[in-house]
Amino acid sequence: MKYFWLYVVAVIASLGGLLSGYDTGVISGALLFINESWNLTDSLQGILVSSVLIGAVIGAATNGVLADIFGRKKIIMATAVIFVLGSVMCAFAPNIIFLILSRMFVGLAVGIVNFIVPLYISEISPKHLRGTLVSLYQWAITAGILFSYFINVAFSHSYYNWRWMLFAGVIPGLVLFTGMLFMKDTPRWLISKNRIEEAKQALLKIDSNSDVDKEIEEVRQTLSDTNENNKFVFKKWMIMPFVVGIGMMFTQICTGINTIIYYAPTIFKSAGFDSNITAIYATAGIGVANFLMTVVAIYFTDRIGRKPLIYIGLTGIMISLFALAASFGFADMIGESAKWISVSCLVTYIIAFAMSLGPVAFILVSEVFPLSIRGFSMSICVLSNFAFNFLVVASFPVLLNRIGGAWTFSIFGIVSVLCIVFVYFFVPETKGISLEQIEYNWKHYIKPRKF
Q1: Among positive and negative, which fits the CA dihedral 287, 292, 295, 296?
Q2: pTM of the prediction?
Q3: How many domains, in total, are found in the chain?
C-alpha cells in the first residue's frame, strides 16, 4: 500500500486522543461514586469535573510555543508522561482537594494533546488525505471515551470503584509514549529548523515517490514569506484564521457536547433512571454510538467536504437539543416514557456530533493557520476550547438544578442555530486545498465562501 507508513504514523499519533477521550469520559461514571464517598454539593461537583479544564487551559496556553521550539514529537511524549503520573495521583487521592489538584495536573496533558496531535497529523499528511487522517484523532477520542465507559461498567461493582476507574488512565498514557518512541518529527517542523536532510528522510518515509525537493522548497518559500527573520509580525489578513479557529471551538463546545459526555449518567438519573449502575450502562450506549459514527466523518470529510458535514451535524444537534428540552418540560405529561425519550435524544445528539463537529472542528483548526505560527495559533484555539469548556461544564449542574433541563437544553439549542449562521458566512471549505494555498487565500483577502 502506497501510504502504509503514513497510516501507521497517523494511527500511533492519534492514540493521543485516547488520553483526552479517557479523561473526558471516565469522570461521568466516577462522579456518581465520588459523590457517595464525599457527598459533594452541586458547585463542588462542577469544580471537580471542570478542574481538568483549568489544567487544560494552562497546557494549551504554554505549550504552543514549546511545540514550535522543541518539535511536535517530544511534546506528544511529554503529555503521555504527565497523564500517567496524573492518573496515579487521582487514584490515590486522600481527599477531594487533592483529587481536584490531581485532575488539574492531568488537564495539562489534555490541553497539550488536543492541539499537538492534530497539528502533527496535518503536517505529515498530503492534502487529499489530510481530513481523513486528522479525523483519526477524533476517532481515538471517541475510542478513549468508550474505553472509559467500559471501565466504569467493569469497576462499578468494585469497592474502590472510582479509584480503579481513574487509575486505568495509565494504560493509554503508556501506549502513546511507547508508540511515539519510534516516530519522526514532522517534515514541516524540521524544515522550519533548517534540518533539511532529516526532513527529506521523513518525507520519503511517508511517500517514497514524492518530489521531496519541490515540497521542501514550497514550505521554505511559505516560511520566508510569513516569518522573515524568525520574527512574528501580526498582519491584518491573520484576523480571519483566528475568527474561524476560535469560532469553530465555540461551535464545538457551546452546543453542549461535554455536558453530555461528562454528565450523561447524571442527566439519565434526572430523567428518571433509578440506580447509578443503570445510568452507567445507558451511558455506555452513548459511547458506542459516538465511536461508530465518527467513522462516517472519517469516510466523508475528504469526499463531500467539511462544511456539508457541519451543516448536517448542527441540524441534528439542534433538533435533538430542542427535543430533549421538551422531554424535560413535559415530563409529568409524558410519564415513564420521558427517560427513554431522553436516551433517544442523547443518542441522536451524539450521532450528529460524532459525524461532524467532533472531528471536523479540529481538522479546520489544523488547516487554517500560517505555517510559521501554526503551533502557537492552534494553542490559542485549544485554549479557547477549554475556556469555553470550563464555563459550560462548571455551570451545567447548577443550571440543571436551578432552571431545569427544559431551559438548559433550550439555551444550547438556540446556540446551535447561531452557529449554523456563523459557519455559513465565516468558515471556508478546505477540502482538497493545500495548506500553502489556504495561507495564500488568506493573504489575498479571498472571502471564506470563495475558497
Answers
A1: negative
A2: 0.72
A3: 1
